[in-house]
């Protein structure tokens, strides 16, 4: 969780799949929604920033000092699709000692139109409708670039899942190949878990695995999949690259 300054503006951007990226900005600068979309693009490996999510999938809170009353005031607004996430937003944005934030719902007469317009993007950006258990807090940055985006931490270990169909000769060969190639492709720790789709179909469904063998990069984000032959070091490097 990002450290909280005394007074700040907090912005949260959700996805239809209920992932969250947020920031706390003491300088209250503009274009933060654009920044959040740009970072989300790289975290989920999208072709472009999902600007169509704003402002419908956003919430904002602004703490400011009122010299007339000598008190801290707050204006907090959330759009209907993120209204249910107020308890989480309270944890992220409440000041020390503040139990809850007085949220206002930005109801609009064209809610259905907004929802339909965003739904039209589902086929182009399916990652946004998937739940990656992502809650990411940004530091105060003026303008994110590819070089400073948190796409792949230099210290976060890799979590890989190899989906197979039983303990067959093909499974043994896939494991042998990965244990030979992974040390050549990675310079940091990794965990490789073998998942039998027959025994753990729920996990296979969650990772959207429809064929075996499939290698899934679960961490760091973005999630990526390699289906079929695993003996190509070029394909494996693309899966593991930031």
Automatic annotation (TrEMBL):
Q: Check the record and name the Gene3D superfamilies matching this protein.
A: Glutaredoxin
Residue ranges of domain KaiB in the record: 161-242
Q: What is the lineage of its organism?
A: Bacteria, Bacillati, Cyanobacteriota, Cyanophyceae, Synechococcales
State the name under which the record lists this protein. Circadian clock KaiB family protein
Q: List where this protein forms a coiled coil.
A: none
Alphabetized SMART domains for the sequence: KaiB (SM01248)
The record's section on InterPro entries has: KaiB-like (IPR039022), KaiB_domain (IPR011649), Thioredoxin-like_sf (IPR036249)
């Amino acid at each position: 969780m990002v450290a909280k300054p005394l007074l700040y503006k907090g912005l949260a951007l959700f996805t239809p799949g209920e992932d969250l990226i947020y920031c706390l900005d003491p300088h209250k600068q503009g274009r933060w929604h654009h920044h959040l979309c740009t970072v989300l693009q790289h975290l989920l490996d999208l072709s472009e920033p999902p600007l169509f999510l704003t402002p419908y999938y956003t919430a904002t809170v602004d703490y400011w000092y009122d010299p007339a009353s000598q008190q801290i005031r707050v204006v907090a607004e959330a759009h209907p699709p993120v209204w249910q996430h107020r308890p989480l937003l309270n944890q992220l944005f409440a000041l020390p000692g503040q139990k809850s934030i007085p949220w206002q719902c930005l109801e609009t007469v064209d809610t259905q139109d907004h929802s339909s317009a965003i739904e039209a993007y589902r086929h182009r950006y399916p990652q946004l409708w998937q739940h990656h258990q992502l809650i990411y807090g940004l530091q105060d940055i003026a303008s994110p670039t590819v070089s400073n985006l948190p796409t792949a931490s230099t210290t976060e270990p890799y979590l890989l899942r190899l989906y197979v169909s039983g303990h067959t000769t093909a499974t043994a060969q896939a494991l042998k190949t990965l244990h030979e190639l992974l040390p050549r492709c990675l310079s940091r720790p990794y965990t490789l878990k073998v998942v039998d789709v027959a025994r753990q179909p729920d996990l296979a469904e969650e990772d959207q695995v429809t064929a075996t063998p499939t290698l899934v990069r679960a961490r760091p984000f973005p999630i990526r999949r390699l289906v079929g032959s695993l003996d190509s070091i070029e394909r494996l490097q693309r899966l593991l690259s930031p």
